[in-house]
Each structure stands twice: as C-alpha cells, then as structure tokens.
Amino acid sequence: MPTQQKQASNKFARIKKLIAASLSVVSLAAFAQQTVTLNDAIVYSLKQHPDLKSFVYMKEAANGLIEQASITNPATINVDVEDVLGTGKYSGVSGMQTTLSISWLLEEEIIKSRVNVANQKSTVAMFQQEVKALDIAAETARIFITLLSQKEQLTLAKLAQNQAQKLLSEIKARVKAGRFNVIDELRAKADLSKKKLVVEDLLHEIEASKSQLSAQWQGNTEFVIDGSLLAIPTIAQVETAYERLKSNPRLKVFASKQRIAESEIALAKANQQPAWSINTGIKRNEAVDDFAFTAGVSIPLGGDNRNRGQIMALQAKQNQSIAESDAWFKRISTQLLLLTHKLKHSRHVITGLSNETIPLLEMASTKAEQAYKMGSYRYTDLYAVQQELISTQLALIEAYTNIQLFNIELERLTGASISL
C-alpha cells in the first residue's frame, strides 16, 4: 500500500514526462498488460483523444498563413535605372534587381507586420492546444478516480453482503432451534437481498465508468485499473496553488491575444501610409523607328489617417483582452480559495472518521452482534448499528474520493502540471 500511495501522490508531478512519452512511444499494444494506471490513462488520452487531432491541422494552417504573409506582391515587368532614364536599351537582369530592391524596401515594414501577426496567431493555437490537453487530462483523471471510488465501494458492499449472509445463517439455525423469532430471519433475508442489489448496481456502474474511461482514448474495456485513493496532498501543495496559477495556459492565451492585437495595430499603421506603385511600359519612338521601356513611380498624396478607425477598434480589442484576463484571474483565484478550504475540510473528515468514528462504530457493531446472539439485544438495534458503520465507511470513501477530485481540479486550474 505505501508504494501505491507514493505513486498516486506523484501522479501530476510526472505528467510532463508522460505527455512527452505519449507523443513518441505509446501504442495501443500497451493494453496487452491488462493493467492501466492513472498515468497510463492520461498518456493514452493525450495520444488518442479525437479533440486533440484537430490541432494538427490547425498548426498546418498557421504555418501556411506564416508562409503566405512573407510573400511580396507580384511584379510585372522590371526595368533598370538606364531604362527609366529612357535610353531604350533593355538590360534585363540588372533592371529586375533594381526594381525588386525598391519593391522590397517599400513593402518590408508591411511584410514584417503580417508575419508577426501570423506568428502570434500560431502561438495562440499552441496555447489553445495546451488548454485542451489540460482539460482532457483532468477529465481522464476524474473518471479514473471515480472508478477507483466505485471499486472501493464494491469491496465494502461485498464485505457487507458476506456479513449479512453469515448473520442470516446463524439466525436460521437459532430460529430452527426455537431461540429466535422467524421475523428476524425474514428481516435478515430482506437485508441480504438489498445488499446483493447494491453489489449488482456497483458492478454495472464500474462497467459504465470503464466504458467512459476507455472512450477517452477510443479503446476497449478489456483492462483493469491500478491505483489508490489513500494519497492525500500536503498542505504545502495546496498553499502553493496561487504561485502556480500564473503558469496556466489560459493566461498565455490571453497574453498572446493581446500581442496579436499589438501586431495587428502595427500592421494597420504600416498600411496607413498610401502605397507607392511602380508602373512600367513600352513606348514607340516613330522618329527613329525604335522602342523604349518606360517606368514611373506613383506617390499618392494625403490619406495618412485612413486606418484610424481600424486602429481604434484594434486598441479596444486589446483592452478587452486585458480586462477578460484580469476577470478570469480573479475568478479562478476565488475558486482556488474555495478548493483549498474543501481540501482542508476533507483532510479533517478523513482524520476524524479514520481515527475515531469508525473504530468506535466497529467496536459497537461487534458488541451489538455478540449481545444479539446472547439474546440481550434486538435485531432492529443490531441492524441500525451495522448500517451506521457501513454508512460511515462510505463517508470515508467519499472523503478520499473528494480530496482526489479537488486536487485534480486544483491542478487543472493552476495548469502547472500539463504542457505540450
């Protein structure tokens, strides 16, 4: 059990390594071992989950936009300096180089701005992929913890069923001997039937949860899970949540959107200046029966503020992103505060039930059964004590389950453990 506790307590600390492994060596053949840990489930989900596949095409699209942004506007006929001066002699390559160099100088600022916008959008897509991966990992962990909880409940339910079966056998013998009333036997049979139903229901719930878990990686349910609910996060882990919050990829998405707005403002300002145009053509000189190339540069006047409205809109968009980022941070900070209180409360519940309540009820149940067999205690009272013990044991399982689920949510909100 100590080994399982150590593995469970370190589950999120190793997720980065697991994700890296999932991108290179994980294959569905791994299911041949028939055992799946929480770490395995997260790796399989990040490798096979359909919601992550779309990011491959999103990345390709972003790369295409970056490449397209770096392309200059196509030129038609290029002439050199001599042609512009009207010598009528076309020198070909030198003229092409002269005009292209002029075109590049004219477009360089705009091209850089376009490429910068495309790069920032690509960065947003990358951080959005991190956000999706974080949510998928958290959802996989929640299903896994739920499945572990159901297995613990099943163990308890089977134990209660065995105890009810044993008690019924003893009651039957004593009823037959005339020492107990047949009413106790009937009530014991009814109690056993209810406990059998609990076991059956849990078996169905476990199969449903296994199907839900395997759907995370589009697999089958031919596996068993390996893990423990007993690991409890330390107070130090809980109290460092605020420090880790700034690493959440959602904040990176907000920051990248702000940089996109900055780049779009720079692009709008670069496009605000009227564009120069280079015109070329061929002119016939009838006096000497010859042809000459002609070229000219058009420089529009005025219109320096033609993108003023667009720039104002982009600045407002940037301010909106900043406001949304601040609001999100405050909202998540409040959620973290509530989670830390819930985690601390669950720790107190586990300590109280484990160290005091359950030991006392176990002792009471044992003594009640002994007293009942001696004829000094009623079946109704024995049943009440046993049910109270079972109910408290279920509460302990629930407390362990909650503390694991709260910890998963804490990791999801901080975003410090998952990064692609």
What does this structure look like?
It is a single chain. The chain is mainly alpha-helical. It has a single domain, classed as Outer membrane efflux proteins (OEP) (Up-down Bundle). The chain has helices spanning 2-9, 15-22, 38-48, 50-69, 81-84, 93-176, 182-215, 235-239, 241-245, 249-272, 308-373, 379-414, and strands at residues 35-37, 224-226, 277-285, 290-298. A two-stranded parallel sheet has the order 1-2. Strands 3-4 form a two-stranded antiparallel sheet. Helix 6 (93-176) runs antiparallel to helix 7, helix 6 packs antiparallel against helix 10 and helix 10 (249-272) runs antiparallel to helix 11 (308-373). The protein starts with a helix and ends in a 6-residue tail after the last helix. The model is unreliable at 1-33 and 74-106 (pLDDT under 50).
